[in-house]
Amino acid sequence: MKKANWILGMCAAVLFSGCAAEPQKKETRDVLRAEVLEAIAFFKEQDPSIQSFFDNAWGYAVLPRVTKGAFWVGAAGGRGEVFERGRRVGYTTLSQATIGFSFGGEFFREVIFFRQKQDLDRFRSGEFAFSAQATATAVTVGAAAKADYKDGMAVFVMADRGLMVDASLGGQKFKYAPASGK
Length: 182
Fold this sequence. Notes:
Strand content: over 45%
Low-confidence stretches: 1-18, 163-168
Order of helices and strands: HHHEEHEHEHE
Structural class: alpha+beta
Distance between the termini: 46 Å
């Protein structure tokens, strides 16, 4: 058991040592762009009522593929794009650490909507963190119609693949980098 926790701890350290928010290679940025557009289309297909969030939010962050794994101690990470008034303005990375009754692995997609400019600015101000487990809405048909902002944000997640039993405590941490125009 100690060895498994040590290995997971090392994996988390590597994961959270942080990759740059903006992909350095053009090919990687192009792939991320395609994945983000696909994720947006998929969210809208699964729940058409989410369109009102895309239309009315000041901004949003789309993470098309977040990888999560756990064996008591868990870690997750992903990269995405940040939009203001529908225009890409930057990139973000997500890192997550959890502890508790958690086993398995999964991939999921996440969209964070920011109600007003100051909410997006708070996200872009540097290191940003919150407890996603307590605030996320799972996307199903009509879920967005019933959802609302909390502290200026509305968070939606959609499981992609995997199997996970998760009753853990933890939070998500984000880094933001403005698009360099490369």
